[in-house]
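An instance as discussed:

___
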Amino acid sequence: MDVRLTSEQRQLRDAASKLADDLGPSSVSDLDDETRIIRLEKVVESTGWRDLRSDGASAVEVAIVVEEFARGLVDVPFVGPVLADDALRHLAEGPHRYSFVVDGEAFDARGLERGVVLGENSVSAVDLGPGIEGVDLTKLSAPVVGAAESLGELSTEQAQRGHALALVATCAELLGAARGAHATAVEYAKIREQYGNAIGSYQAVAHLLAEGLALIEGSISVLRHAAWAVDELEPAEAIHAATVAKLYCARTARTVCEAAIQVHGGIGNTWECLVHVFLRRALTATELFPVTLEEIHSGLS
C-alpha cells in the first residue's frame, strides 16, 4: 500500500482542519455557545461529508475528516451519521439523516431524530429520544424509542466491512483527540515559565512531549493501514487490521492526553483546562466498539 495522501485527500484534510479550527470550541465555555454550534451544524451539513460513503469516498477519506474533527473537538454529529450512511448506502440513495445505534443508544445524535440499527446482517430504522449529555462533552447520545422498522439486509461482506469502518472511525477519533491534546500541551509549554524559563526548555517536559509525538506517529501509521484495508483487503483481514489499530490508538490516546494534563501542572486538573475534554473524547471512543489484546491473538491463530 501507498500511505501517502493524494492531492484530493490533502485538500479534504485541509478543509476539515480549517472548519474545525474556525468553528470548533477553543475553550470549555465555548461548549455551551449555542450560536456557534448552530453555525457549525449548518457548515458541516452543507459540506455533504456525512454522506461520504454514499458518494463513493474511501475509508481513508472518512478517517481523514473524523481525525481532524476530533482534533478540533467538533461538537456536532459526524461519526454516527457517517456509519449510518455506510450501512444505508447499500439499500437506498442518500442523503441519509440518521445516526448509528449501538446497544440501544445512538452515541452521536445531537439534533437527529432517527437512528440505524445493524443486526448481524439486517438494517433497521428507529426513532430516537431527546439528546442526553455524557462523559464526552462534545457529543449528545439519544436512546431508541418505539419499534424498529426493517430496511433490508446486507451481505456478510458488506456487514464485515462496515464493522471494520466503525473500528477505523473510532481509531481516527482517538488519534485526533491525542493530536489535539498534544498540540495544546506544546503551546502551553512554550509560554508557561518556571524559574525564569519556559517549561518546554526543561528536559523532563520536552522528553514527555517528544515521546507523545512518537506515539502519535505510530497511531498515524496503524490507522492509515487499517483505513486502507477496509476497502482493499479481504473483510477478515480488514477487521484484524482495524482491531490492531484500535488497541494501539486507544493506549496512545490515553497516554498522550494524560501527559498533556501533567504538562499543564495544577491547572491541568481544573474544569477550565481544555485538555480534559480531549481525554473524555478519547475514553468514550475507546469504549465504542472496544477490542482486547486476546481478540488480536485469536485473529492470528
In short: Strands lie at 99-102, 105-106, 114-118, 122-128, 132-133, 140-153, 193-194, 197-198.
